[in-house]
Amino acid sequence: MALHLIHFIDYVAAGKIELTITNNDSSLSGDSYYHLISIGDISVGNDKESEYIYMPSGFDVRGKVVADNIKTIINALSLGTNYSELKLNGAICHRGFVNNNSVSGNPLTKEIKFRCEDHTIKLKELTPSANPYGFSLTGTQKVKTTLYYLLTEPSIFPHPFILDVNYHGTVQVKHNIGGSDVIFDFDLFYILNNDFFGTDNNYQTVAELFKSLIINYNCIGYVELDRILHLVPRTYEGQGFTNINTDDLLSEVTYSVNLKEIEGMLLMLWSGGTPKANDNSWGRYQYGNVNADNEKDNTKVEKIYLTQPCGEFMVNNYPESFSGLYVYQGANQYEIQIDWNCRKKDINGNYTDWDYLWKIIGEETWNYLSSNPLRETYTLKLKGLSEKWNFHTYYKTIFSDRIFRIVKAKYNFYKNQTEVILKQVD
């Protein structure tokens, strides 16, 4: 069936905006070009960091249809799957789909309204037990490759957005090969597919699995307007920073403190045992105050599952050890040894001592959650868009000597400006 492309175009402060809707309704043919009246701001992130994967949000659209077939267009957009693609100055910065229930219009003014949604919802609809991606359960693949396919598999995302995965942390592992220690960076970390997919897993949704993969390295995933999934450490690891200067500011600065309600953290460490859903297959480590009253309240206790703990720990008062992390040298596969074989950089950019991965991640995460109950937070409006203000850059400001990262950004193409929430991370 022939595709019909509906184009909405406008010229704004940030440049040329073009929104294209792909429709296969037989009542429409060829391409149509209309005036884009407005689109809503596109936001990424969450000031509460309640999720661990963020994609560019959906946005509302208003367009002017000059043809007499406005009812036909409304009917077409209200049925089936209509994919959306937004370009700024020729570069794709959003892909999603039209919310069928959001479409409406005025036959007299020829104005049409609808909402373009992002694809995040699909991760919450898929179950890893069904292995919807068709991975070989006896094989291994890179952590980065797995994350990439989770967002681009054509049978699930026929209109994928992301192009690559970038890791911005500093975790390394070492393995003794031929009598010498060989150091491996994150880009060379592998998983065993059967540890995450297939009938024996403890994830209800692919979204939960995604979270488990990246929180294992203390990261949050941001899909930015550059079409890259950026894996950003929750805490600063000495990567360097960019200054936000007076000339960048467009409004007064709002300062607040992040009054943390967190009381404790529960680290769950997989022992490699099966069935994976069995509590006896997991080590349990508590930080701070964790009890029967607050454990199920995620605003009080953060619960983290690590499937690649790379170390020794206790399960029901018995010592256990499990790695779950694999590397390759040439054609040879190695599981990282259960020893002090992991490290990362601290806030000064210096590597920590070699230790178990779960200990490094657990202690760093708890220090971040608990050490400063008055963590600084700022809300700013800044000149420019994501090329300057993004989630994988750390920042310093003229009004604080602390180091920050953006946890939420709202991009306004019409004003060529970005509203951000900065959170202290050092």
Give a written overview of the molecule.
The protein is mostly beta strands and 426 residues long. The protein is built from 5 helices and 31 strands. The protein has helices at residues 70-77, 120-123, 143-152, 206-215, 357-370; strands at residues 4-12, 15-23, 31-39, 42-45, 53-54, 59-64, 83-88, 91-98, 104-106, 111-117, 140-142, 164-167, 172-177, 180-185, 190-192, 219-223, 228-233, 242-244, 254-259, 264-270, 282-288, 301-306, 311-315, 318-322, 326-329, 332-335, 342-343, 374-383, 394-397, 400-412, 417-424. The strands form 8 sheets. Strands 1-2-7-8-10-6-3 form a 7-stranded mixed β-barrel. Strands 4, 18, 19, 28, 29, 30 and 31 form a 7-stranded mixed beta sheet that branches. Strand 13 and strand 14 form a beta hairpin. The longest helix has 14 residues, at 357-370.
Could you list some keywords that capture this structure?
single chain, 426 residues, mainly beta, 2 domains, seven-stranded mixed barrel, seven-stranded mixed sheet, 5 helices, 31 strands, 11% helix, 42% strand
Q: In summary, what is this structure?
A:
The chain is mainly β and 426 residues long. 11% of the residues lie in helices and 42% in strands. It has two domains: 4-118, no CATH class; 123-424, no CATH class.
